[in-house]
Structure formats: C-alpha cells, structure tokens
Amino acid sequence: MHPAPPPMILSIAGHDPTGGAGIQADIEAIAACGGRAVTAVSALTVQDTRDVRLLEAVAPELLEAQLQTLLQDIPVQAIKIGLIGSVQNARVIARILGQRPALPVVLDPVLAAGGGGDLASAGLPEAIVDTLLPRVGLLTPNTPEARRLGGDGELATCAHRLLERGCGAVLITGTHEREEAVINRLFRRDLPPLAASWPRLPESYHGSGCTLSAAIATLLGRGFPLEQAVERAQAFTWNSLRLGYRPGAGQYLPDRMAVERTEAAGPRP
C-alpha cells in the first residue's frame, strides 16, 4: 500500500534564478509546510539577489495550457498566486479560478522587486483589483502594495476597500514600515482586525512574501481555518528569515527547509 499523497498546492508564479522568491521559494515553503507543489510559470526573469534586471511574461496561451493540463490531471487543494506578469495572464488566471470556486486561493500581489524594480506592467494593478480579487480568499500585500491597490495612505482604509472589491480577507504585512516591531494585520469582513507582532530582523530579505503566502495556502489546503493558517505561516516565515543567509552581494534569502522548523506548520487539524 502506498501512503496517501500530501495535499497538492498549485503555485502560479515567476521563475527567480536565485531561488529566493517565485516558484522555487513556493516549492520549498509548500514542502516544508506539509504539501506537494505543482507549478505553472507565469514569467521568466533575469535577476540576482540585488534586483530584477529583466522580466518576460509567459504568453497567456502558454500559461493557460500549463494550468489546464495540470488541473485536468491532479486535484489540487489550494492555489497560491504570485508574480502574474501581464494583464492577459491575470485574465487567464481569473478564468481558471472561476472554474473552481470552492478552492482556497491566496494572492501575493507582487508589484515590485525587493531591489525596487517595478514588476507590474501597465494596467496590471487595476486588473488584479477588478478581475482577480472577487475570486481570491486571501490577499497578502505588503504596505506599499496595499496602498497601491487600495488607493489610500491609511492601511485600514485600503484593506476595507479591497474587501469591498470582493476578496475574502486581507493580510497586510508590515516589514516596510518604520515601526520597531513588524506588525502584520489580518482584515476580515465584519470582524475586528487581528494584529501579530514579530521582532524586526536586522537584514533585508528576498522572498519573504512568497514564503508567507505559499505557507498559508498550504495550511489552508491541509484544512486549517484561516486564522490558524495565517498565525502558523507567520511563525514559519519569521523563522525562515531568522535562519536566512546571504549567498550573493544583495539581500538575504530565507532558509525554508531547515528540519528544526517543520514543526512550525503544526500537525494536521
């Protein structure tokens, strides 16, 4: 008898040659949190640990073929979306999500690289809000992304505007703010926000948002309620960053695969 397979988690994201972010980061986080990654590449990049030099979105026909072929063969338990690459790709993803409305979907709206390079083509932020948000269970922007998508300087206002556009919940991460600690805030409809405080680490990290969103998607796919999935994924991400290292001349990369941290994901509910 073969053992039952782990939950299959679909990652739709870009390829990062450093392995710090994107598809490779998702594969590591999903595996460390108890899932098995299946992937569709949305964009190719030329980048190092300092910044993205070039981004080439995958043709929408190719992205759709990847997704349809995978999903016709493998039943997935959750979907994580990262770098999208183009407005056309956002529309493809929205169509795919519309065919599977019961699946948990986590969207990390990657709009800029850690080094500051813009990763959003013309019209993509608007396409995310108009096309994808109604099909997303959890949006995980950092504070610049929340302000760009929500159109306001006040983060709570941004979150409520994004909730009004149809997404189920919004987790705004605070690494870009100047607070002494990192404060992450989970906004839900008709409920008070949940805030979690984490000690601010001394370095700059590449791939923290990918790690967090992929971990949440995996835990949702395993059956954890949203609040528990968010709490456990934050612990996993913080420890991945704490144990990170600097392989090049730029940002530190999270260490998502250290065995001692797999317990952060917790047992099956």
TrEMBL record:
<dbReference type="GO" id="GO:0009229">
    <property type="term" value="P:thiamine diphosphate biosynthetic process"/>
</dbReference>
<dbReference type="InterPro" id="IPR029056">
    <property type="entry name" value="Ribokinase-like"/>
</dbReference>
<feature type="domain" description="Pyridoxamine kinase/Phosphomethylpyrimidine kinase">
    <location>
        <begin position="16"/>
        <end position="251"/>
    </location>
</feature>
<dbReference type="InterPro" id="IPR013749">
    <property type="entry name" value="PM/HMP-P_kinase-1"/>
</dbReference>
<comment type="pathway">
    <text>Cofactor biosynthesis; thiamine diphosphate biosynthesis.</text>
</comment>
<keyword id="KW-0808">Transferase</keyword>
<dbReference type="GO" id="GO:0008972">
    <property type="term" value="F:phosphomethylpyrimidine kinase activity"/>
</dbReference>
<dbReference type="Pfam" id="PF08543">
    <property type="entry name" value="Phos_pyr_kin"/>
</dbReference>
<keyword id="KW-0418">Kinase</keyword>
<protein>
    <recommendedName>
        <fullName>hydroxymethylpyrimidine kinase</fullName>
        <ecNumber>2.7.1.49</ecNumber>
    </recommendedName>
</protein>
<dbReference type="GO" id="GO:0005829">
    <property type="term" value="C:cytosol"/>
</dbReference>
<dbReference type="GO" id="GO:0008902">
    <property type="term" value="F:hydroxymethylpyrimidine kinase activity"/>
</dbReference>
<dbReference type="InterPro" id="IPR004399">
    <property type="entry name" value="HMP/HMP-P_kinase_dom"/>
</dbReference>
<dbReference type="GO" id="GO:0009228">
    <property type="term" value="P:thiamine biosynthetic process"/>
</dbReference>
